[in-house]
Amino acid sequence: MKTQSQKPTQVNLRIMSGLHGRLERAAQRNHTSLNNEMRVRLERSLDSDDAVTLANVAVDITIAWQKFSEYVATAEISDEILQAIEAKNFDKAYARVLALRRHQASAAQQRLAKMSEKESDNER
Question: Where are the domains of the chain?
Answer without folding.
Answer: 48-123
